[in-house]
Amino acid sequence: MEIILHDNRIVIPKDLQMRVIDLAHEGHQGIVRTKQLLREKVYFPGIDKLVEQTCKSCIPCLASTPKNVFEPLQMSEIPNNVWENLSMDFLWTISEWILRYGNN
After folding, report:
1. Domain for residue 15, yes or no?
2. pLDDT tens digits for 20-42?
3. Is residue 26 part of a domain?
4. Which InterPro entries match (predicted)?
C-alpha cells in the first residue's frame, strides 16, 4: 500500500475516514480539539463537516455538555400578608444531595 501525502499530512482513504475520526475523538475533547488533532497529521476532503457531525452525535459528549438554558425572569406579585408567598432556591442537584446526606 502506498502512502499519499498532502502538505506533509497523510491522505486518508474514504473507507478509513470515520475510523480515524473516531480514534481522534476517543478522548471526547470536543469539535475544536478533534479538528486540531486531525489537521496536524491527516488530510481528506470534508474533514471539518465530518468531525462536526460525529461530535454532535456523540452520546457521551451530548450527555456531558452543559445546557445553558435559563428560564426568563418573571416579576412576582407583592404579597398582601406575611407568609403568603414563600420562595426557595435549590443549590444542589438531587444526586449531589443524596451523596452528601444519604437516604436518611
Report:
1. yes
2. 999 999 999 999 999 999 999 99
3. yes
4. Integrase_H2C2, Retrovirus_Pol_polyprotein
In a domain, 32, yes or no: yes
Domain count, the chain: 1
- Mean pLDDT in consecutive groups of 10 residues from the start of the chain, 104 residues: 89 96 94 96 97 93 78 84 82 67 62
Average pLDDT, the chain: 87
Cross-strand pairs, 42: 10
**DSSP character string of 42-61:** EE-TTHHHHHHHHHHT-HHH
* Region for residue 54 given its phi and psi (left: phi exceeds 0; alpha: psi -120 to 50; beta: otherwise): alpha
Q: Determine contact, residues 100/92, Cβ cutoff 8 Å.
A: yes
| Contact (CB, 8 A) for 34 and 21 | yes
Could you list the residue range(s) of the whole structural domain that residue 31 is in? 5-64
The CATH number of whichever domain residue 22 belongs to comes to 1.10.340.70
Cell numbers found for residue 3: 502512502
